[in-house]
Amino acid sequence: MTFPWGPATGVGSMPGGDAREAAKTVTGSLIGAEGAGGDFPYLAELPARGPGADMIGRTLGLLVELYAHVEPSGWRTSDRPGRDTRRARSWLGEDLDALEEFTQGFQGPLKVQAVGPWTLAAALELRGGEAALSDAGACRDLAASLAEGLRGHLAEVRRRVPGAQVLLQLDEPSLTAVLRGHVATASGYRTHRAVDRQVVEGALRDVMAVADGPVAVHSCAPDVPFALLRRAGAAAVSFDFSLLTERDEEAIGEAVEGGTKLLAGVVASTDGPLSDPAGSVSGVRTLWRRLGLDPGTLAESVVITPSCGLAGASPAYARAALAHCARAAKSLADNPE
């Protein structure tokens, strides 16, 4: 079955700590009155609640037979699940309860997010204090545990929202740093060795394989490795449109021609004035012309999003930004040239 990509969605995080309010905002902004078709809600993340609600802690709570706790320096592996793991799982349960409540009868695409294996390996400390990234065996174990945890999580989402077709988004903001050897060691004086591209690609492919549906990879860092992500099996790439350079254009053109969806972050993720909807997508139209792509493919190739998560925005701006994404996507569909 072809995945029913919606025209606009969010990246993941939202402001505040009220799961019901976040779910209400997301669904109210991204599900039309008819309740189906052209909509693209997502499971909101609320990092302001504290450790365990942050993207790293939330994903660590999904792991199978691997556990972590909070140290002053960050998340570190544990022998058994403790208070921090239980808190992460409890908050995720609250978020799922809220999503289920506000998606009654919904049919269409639904996005859920988790941190990908390489950003997780760069953030999680082993017992000695160094990142899991420093140990190839630890990276393999982490990716396998993540894959198993995501299998169960996606099944739970499908059970709670049976009309949804679920898209998994892997958040990989550290991926480029991992590939280039730019991740700092615990001392801060050195960096971890660059990980071989084939190893990176293989771990991503293994994690994506459990999704039983399309997978998007998100990074709001510069120099997103579009070609590597496509080879690993990503059906879509989510990125901050303002960080694109001419170096990215050939890879983007090849991605579009190969059928990869672009989740283009064109709406600012922190409070500020919003342009008119057509103005927000003018850069996307310009890029299409520069690449010589058919304007008629714009609406089917591009999903409009904020540039990154909305955790740093005010609740009022977060609502306005999601609604603006939907209006900007409509402008792109109505006037592609």
Q: Can you put this structure into words, describing what you see?
A:
It is built from 13 helices and 8 strands. It has 337 residues and is an alpha/beta fold. The strands form 2 sheets. A 6-stranded parallel beta sheet has the order 3-4-5-6-7-8. It has a two-stranded antiparallel sheet with strand order 1-2. Helix 9 (246-257) links the parallel strand 6 and strand 7 (261-267). The protein is globular, with a radius of gyration of 19 Å.
Biggest β-sheet, characterized? 6 strands, parallel
Q: Count every helix, treating DSSP H or I runs of 4 or more residues as helices.
A: 13
Q: What portion of the residues fall into strands of 2 or more residues?
A: 5-15%
Rg over CA atoms, rounded to whole Å, is 19 Å
Order of secondary-structure elements: HHEEHEHHEHHEHEHEHHHEH
Uncertain segments: 33-37
Overall shape: it is: globular
Distance between the termini: 30 Å
Overall mean pLDDT: 94
